[in-house]
Design goal:
The chain is mainly alpha-helical. Helices cover 71% and strands 0% of the residues. α2 crosses α4.
Length: 176
Amino acid sequence: MKSPHQWAFLWLSLAIMLSFLFEKQNALGLEPLAKIIGREGNTAALVLALGYLFLLAWHNKDRALALWVTAVMLVETVVFFAIQALTWHGFHILARPSGGSGGFPSGHTAAHVCLAYLLTERYPKLAPLWWFWAALMAWSRVEAGAHWAYQIVAGVALGAAVCLTLGRKLKPQPEA
């Protein structure tokens, strides 16, 4: 592939397609696994990957890397919560499959799209792994019954929008 980010299109398209085809909770009989991916997998991936990126920045005295990672993840989180606040009450069309509010967009999906972007920029040869994990997280949210497929599409769009604007603009340039 010409760009390592083309893996994003491949894996995320597959996850979205599977989510729309099998939108019913536990449609593939993998709900227990999906719940583990969405809970423990989410926490472990975010802590390990972000921790590693910050440790790398600290070790290399690379303030630009630390600021870049912080800005991308912080803006994604702030925009996510702003959208959540706007859609929290009275928009039952945006509810979770359980009927609860707060399902739009999928914050897990948005965060892992941003994380995959950051890791791909740093380690492009491992792009298939980073984007596979983001796609797996997106799929798991539907299989576990936490989100509808359109909510993970919104999460992908949010993560991509943050990364393609802010992520590219603030990306640290390699030292000559």
